[in-house]
Amino acid sequence: MTDTTLPPADGEGDRIEPVDLGQEMQKSYIDYAMSVIVGRALPEVRDGLKPVHRRLLYASFDAGFRPDRSYVKSAKPVAETMGNYHPHGDTAIYDALVRLAQPWSMRYPLIDGQGNFGSRGNDGAAAMRYTEARLTPLAMEMLRDIGEETVDFTPNYDGKTQEPTVLPARIPNLLINGSGGIAVGMATNMPPHNLNEVADAVFWALENHDADDETTLAACMECIKGPDFPTAALIVGSQGIKDAYTTGRGSIRMRSVVDIEENKGTTTLVVTELPYQVNPDNLIQSIAEQVNEGKLKGISRIEDQSSDRVGMRIVVTLRRDAVAKVVLNNLYKHSQLQTSFGANMLSIVDGVPRTLRLDQMIRYYVAHQIDVIVRRTRYRLRKAEERAHILRGLVKALDALDEVIALIRRSANTDTARTGLIELLDIDEIQADAILAMQLRRLSALERQKIVDELAEIELEIADYKDILDKPERQRAIVRDELKEVVEKYGDERRTRIIAADGDVSDEDLIAREDVVVTITETGYAKRTKTDLYRSQRRGGKGVQGAGLKQDDIVKHFFVCSTHDWILFFTTKGRVYRAKAYELPEANRTARGQHVANLLAFQPEERIAQVIQLKTYEDAPYLVLATRNGLVKKSKLVDFDSNRSGGIAAINLRGEDELVGAQLCSADDDLLLVSQKGQSIRFHADDETLRPMGRQTSGVQGMRFNADDTLLSLNVVSEGTYLLVATSGGYAKRTGMDDYPVQGRGGKGVLTIAHDRRRGELIGALIVDDDSELYAITSNGGVIRTAAKQVRKAGRQTKGVRLMNIDEGTTVIAIARNADEPEETDASE
């Protein structure tokens, strides 16, 4: 049985005082909480470091583990830190060191590690006896000038040495590397940022030091676009960034970078960048579990192909019937391919935890740097004045050299000599000791001049130091110049891209406007390619290689537009879908692109019949549609402005009829229809000839045909233009619009090209002018680009001239025009 008898009280120290348990618990817990908050879990606003990180860096610096020296075992900085400054476990200290060395944890690592420091997954670092470490050059900027009394020091835990309360931190570490920690009753979670952007905000704050808080905040947010994570990836939307910067708290949505790849009929989602702090091993396991449980559908396999050579690469293989875009959206919703960073800008300010806005963090950093500059300048001024004081004594001694030598020779001891020098030269004890310590060689005339010159130089330095201390604008200029040097050495490009979210700024604000060639194949593969990848050629050239197609696939639609244009997809079933040009996958000339089923929600058995582009739905008052059987319908263009992802009805088709053409027009235009056998008809598009109809109507007869003939193209006539027709054999011609008389709607029209079996069937007919540029594409994917005016003018009943040289067995399958000014030709005929 335990003895609970209290020992007798022999003295004052043995006195036991009864206390209220509740009050004692409250007081002790508050003391503990403040110790954790201030001394362990939260970063200091001035250097952005927690105590363990600060002690690690200072211990490594003090022990000489610097970037200009060789690596040392990681156990050494851990031991230095634990033995001198941080009385905690070596495991906790080593974990802190490992994180400072991991490039996926730190935007700008402060420890240069060598060996196995773990991975982004579940692989831990090797033991500290195996790995090696030293400070990075950027960490030296954190410690620069620490020996010049730039920061306060305090006794360490056992009082045997001193440690800094804060580092000089010549870089804005709190913002560029961020921080995270859980204290008692509070937590911090600061995202990392780009050094160049943060430096721009600091420069603005230095130049506009008297600006009010709102102006400073707006300027800082203009300079700093958002967090810049070491793992890159995407930030979706800017509202969370705005909240974090203006209130200190915000939820920032992060998203992986995923490419949709197709190879031999298999579609894969390739993840190349993950959000910050997402563990790829756990991500793969989570996705696999959800696939097995049936929560995620359409996925057949997932594997990690990441390596040091290729970087991050997680490959998700889809089932053949899966739609990539649908699967990807489900992955964003149910996995960490998309997650949020809960920003909480909490740090220690003057010993107290405070939630800060962006501008406040910048201001505190600037104030700290100015304080460092002032303290360093005072230190250097004091050292310079001490040296100048000694030099003045030496000059006095050299001016009375004979008397000084005689006095020293007759002095019995050093104290007598010192006293005599003080009386003789009117100097103090410090100067007298310096004279007595002076070497004989410095008595020469040359050495005397060196002392005089050094004194003059130091007096200039003293004046400069005093000027710095008297002028705050010079202090700010020094901070700016020194930070600029650091940025020039270590600044880099932003890694994390910020994209728009629903209800946020539009995609057009983030995507460059440029012309692209849009290519869509018969089987539905679409892509966009920069126009400069197709060089300009003269008529008769053989072209450059275009899309690499399967033998059973051909290019069906081919045109030039802006990345910001709407692309309207009209299907054989009379429906219309839309997408922005930039939503099409970008690919080179030889790539097939991506199937439109991954972009558009087509109904079963729907195929693309016609594609047109427009900038807005106000580009024209009407949209004209034409079917293979010659029906024509005119409807208001605004009637087709719909956000429905499932498309809308464009025309009501009769029987087996199909949609062939779609054009923008006005009531003042003329329409020109061309048939497969070379017939053409021109008629007015006014409301009397062609009255406007609703979307779900069938239209009226625009052209009638002879046997085995159907409609090839629908065109809108413009004055001063030509009808350019091309055949499958590579022949083409231009015919002026005056050769095509206006007729009544519904006739068979007039001949537009004389049929010649050797020259092939008619494959295209379009309107061009002298400034148009023509593209023609062959059955094997070859493309020629030439000015339309280089195609010979000819009458309606002629056969045309050679447009491009083609190999045997190859045919021309499509032509398209670019209405922009053609580029200067640079290829030979």
Could you name the ranges where pLDDT drops below 50 across 5 or more consecutive residues? Answer: 819-829
The quaternary organization reads as: single chain
CATH class of the largest domain: Mainly Beta
Strand content: 15-25%
Biggest sheet character: 4 strands, mixed
Could you tell me how far the N terminus lies from the C terminus, measured between alpha carbons in angstroms? 110 Å
Topology (SSEs and partners):
Blueprint: H1 21-41, H2 51-63, E1 72-73, H3 75-84, H4 90-101, E2 111-114, E3 132-135, H5 137-143, E4 153-155, E5 162-164, H6 173-177, E6 179-182, E7 187-190, H7 195-207, H8 213-223, E8 234-236, H9 239-247, E9 249-255, E10 257-263, E11 266-273, H10 280-292, E12 299-304, E13 314-318, H11 324-334, E14 338-344, E15 346-349, E16 352-355, H12 358-399, H13 401-410, H14 414-425, H15 429-436, H16 445-470, H17 472-490, E17 497-499, E18 515-521, E19 525-530, E20 544-545, E21 555-562, E22 566-571, E23 575-580, E24 594-595, E25 608-614, E26 622-627, E27 631-636, E28 648-649, E29 659-665, E30 670-675, E31 679-684, E32 700-701, E33 711-717, E34 722-727, E35 731-736, E36 750-751, E37 762-768, E38 773-778, E39 782-787, E40 801-802, E41 812-818
Parallel strand pairs: 8-17
Antiparallel strand pairs: 1-3, 2-3, 4-5, 6-7, 8-9, 9-14, 10-11, 11-13, 12-13, 15-16, 18-19, 18-21, 19-24, 20-39, 22-23, 22-25, 23-28, 26-27, 26-29, 27-32, 30-31, 30-33, 31-36, 34-35, 34-37, 35-40, 38-39, 38-41
